[in-house]
């Protein structure tokens, strides 16, 4: 490995350590309560190293949310790819959500947690949360639109909003109450949304 390649590898490793450390702490403890000194100490890097990779804490928070966004997009893509049936895809996405709720260390939705700390709609962190949520709403709405009987298209906007609200409630409750009960209740609610979509499609047909 050339000296320049070794330097790039070291730089990449330092950035990954910083982001990994920030992700762990931000998710477990919140964002505003965590200072740069705590992150650099736990990541075993200097402040100068942090500022070589991020313009400041806000930039690090945005990178944390971007990483979370990419992870959820991958999770949803895997769920959708697991079955050709649109109904099955909605159920698979729902199951992937409850897998998260049931996982050790679950602390709710990273995006809902973040937006509670950044209430200003014009703030870049708030905007990043809204962009992620819009993508998720668009994705589940499209799936629900294809989930009617015999593929009959339906107006799934209301159903999509309903599913997102069910998901939000489950993510909030999942770290406060019995995750198994919360997961069961959420999946039951998703089945109700699917029944509504199916009935609407049957009427359209």
From TrEMBL:
Keywords: DNA-binding, Transcription, Transcription regulation. The lineage of its organism: Bacteria, Bacillati, Actinomycetota, Actinomycetes, Kitasatosporales. The keyword Transcription regulation applies. This is TetR/AcrR family transcriptional regulator. The keyword Cytoplasm does not apply. SUPFAM superfamilies: Homeodomain-like, Tetracyclin repressor-like, C-terminal domain. It comes from the Bacteria. Residues 12-72 form the HTH tetR-type domain. Residues 35-54 bind DNA. PROSITE patterns: HTH_TETR_2. InterPro entries: Homeodomain-like_sf (IPR009057), HTH_TetR (IPR001647), Tet_transcr_reg_TetR-rel_C_sf (IPR036271), TetR_C (IPR011075). It comes from Streptomyces tendae.
